[in-house]
Write a structure and sequence with these properties.
With 168 residues, this protein is α/β, with parallel strands linked by helices. It is 40% helix and 21% strand. The chain is built from five helices and seven strands. Strand 3, helix 2 and strand 4 form a beta-alpha-beta unit.
């Protein structure tokens, strides 16, 4: 009886060790809370049950301006699916990158996704190691960071990754 119990305990310990070693590591998205330009609070709670692309940008960033039409198209392409884009604008010393400048840009570009303004850069500092823009972070339905894109992503590859995540 003791041998059976010992063998069972050993099997459980080995199984737990293997599970720990071979299970995929999770990388939860940093905790954040911001209000969008319409005053609605957005936080990590909004990341569950949807694949999310968080895009950090500002209106006078050439790369940000270049990729924005592709992000707008992507938002339209995935409308009605469990996918969302969240834009987080960051301030610079340029007046065009102020809160009013961001509001004007969003209205003029007809951005169809939620946009927040990270006035003190507290959120961007949690997600972005080096302040290089644009930077986008892809998050799965469990709120875990899958990938970070510094600069404009390869949108064909991004669509494939989003489709793979949506299929899970």
């Amino acid at each position: 009886m003791n041998k059976i119990f010992a063998a069972l305990c050993a099997a459980v310990i080995i199984g737990l060790g293997a599970f720990t070693l071979f299970s995929p590591a999770t990388n939860p998205a940093p905790t954040f809370q911001l209000s969008d330009l319409k005053g609605q609070n957005i936080s990590n709670a909004n990341l569950t049950d949807k694949v999310t692309l968080i895009n950090f940008w500002f209106p006078t960033c050439p790369g940000c301006v270049s990729e924005m039409p592709k992000l707008i198209k992507m938002a339209h392409d995935y409308q009605g699916k469990d996918f969302q884009i969240i834009g987080i604008a960051v301030p610079t010393t340029n007046p065009a990158d102020s809160l009013d400048g961001v509001k004007n840009y969003v209205a003029k570009a007809q951005i169809p996704f939620q946009v927040m303004f990270d006035a003190d850069k507290s959120t961007v500092s949690q997600f972005v190691k080096n302040e290089l823009y644009p930077t986008s972070v892809l998050i799965n339905k469990r709120g875990e960071v899958l990938k970070t894109f510094v600069g404009e992503p390869d949108f064909a590859a991004l669509y494939q990754e989003v489709n793979a995540e949506l299929a899970k």
